[in-house]
Amino acid sequence: FGSETDLAEQLREALAPITALAPAIGIAENKFTAACAAAAHHAAGCASGALLVAGGSAAEFLAPQPLQVLPNLPAEMLRRLQLFGLHTLGNFAALSAAAVAAQFDAAGLCYHALARGRDVRPLLPHTPPLILRCSRALPEGLPDRQALHNHAGRLAQRLAAALQAASAHTTALAVELQQDTGPAQQAGAAVKPPSADARRLQRMAQRLLEQFELTTAAGTLRLTAYPLRAWHLGASQLELLPERTARSSDSMHQTVRALRQRFGAPVMQLASTLGPPQPLPLQVRSAPDGSPLLVRLPKNNGTRTVQQVLEFWREQRSWWEQPVQREYYLVEAVGGRLLTLFHDARAGWFLDRRREL
């Protein structure tokens, strides 16, 4: 690379066509000092070159910098340092490590080392997010939009199989339609929560295709899942056999007693108990087979036309002398909203808010 100045110019030339920005470059013996040097280079308004901090002079360069340049410095720690009259990294670095540990424990020692120009954190390369793509060539003369939906459904099945093989979920889905007669059409949406479910990806892809203008020309349909993440992230382990011991109860009583002794009896108040959301009565126009066609939502939320019934099941049980007989429908309304409705043989139609998606 040559000298540090030559390296800075090579970085600038490589970044210019990608970002169209004028980068600020700092060069030092560790990450934190280099970041502070880059910030100082930008503040000085320099459009070329780099700010070089020579080896062994990091502490001297950092000394006049304010405490706020420390990465993710806790607000409480900053407040206490300023109460002690410490406002710069040099003031902080002048403290002994023993004094810092006595006040701020191990976390304080990490920031103290940065203030002294020592940063042992390794350099980690940027890893682009993982993506999966599936494409399908479309024949000329597609008969209708339903045929395009069928192609998208097969692609979504392939994408879901690939995700499951990789033990991954996708957090977003993009659809691209490139036909010979015009520019590519693109649409995307977030997948919340992330999923690898084939039926869900099919519904999303078909819904995104509704935004496209369709011609009879040949072309290519492409589905992209991005970025991917491990399937278990965000999951929680169910506690099958929770241990209920007297020790946890005793600890809670001791905590309550200590709070009352310190702040008085009114500090502890009984919170109102909240049960599951109650079903809301609805006005529904149904088909001859009993399935819902048109739903009028409560609280002046308008009406929804049912696009398709996704799932149907019956629930029958007896509760003392009041038997329950219900028919449940998971439906997709026009616009993509999913609703869980049920028809009670005794009371009519309701919206089941416990299962709202």
Itemize the secondary structure elements and their pairings.
Elements: H1 4-19, E1 26-27, H2 31-43, E2 51-52, H3 58-62, H4 75-83, H5 89-93, H6 97-115, E3 132-138, H7 145-165, E4 168-179, E5 185-195, H8 198-209, E6 219-230, H9 246-263, E7 280-281, E8 283-286, E9 292-296, E10 303-319, E11 322-333, E12 338-344, E13 348-351
Parallel strand pairs: 1-2
Antiparallel strand pairs: 3-6, 4-5, 4-6, 7-13, 8-9, 9-10, 10-11, 11-12, 12-13
Helix pairs in contact: 7-8
Would you mind describing this structure in some detail?
- With 357 residues, the chain is α+β, with helices and mostly antiparallel strands.
- The chain folds into three domains: 112 residues, 5' to 3' exonuclease, C-terminal subdomain (DNA polymerase, domain 1), CATH 1.10.150.20; 99 residues, 2-Layer Sandwich (Dna Ligase, domain 1), CATH 3.30.1490.100; 76 residues, no CATH class.
- Helices cover 33% and strands 27% of the residues.
- The chain is built from nine helices and 13 strands.
- The strands form three sheets. The chain has a seven-stranded antiparallel sheet with strand order 7-13-12-11-10-9-8, with no helix packed on it. A four-stranded antiparallel sheet has the order 3-6-4-5, with helices on one face. Strands 1-2 form a two-stranded parallel sheet.
- Helix 7 packs antiparallel against helix 8.
- It starts with a helix and ends in a 6-residue tail after the last strand.
- 18% of the residues are buried.
- The mean pLDDT is 83.
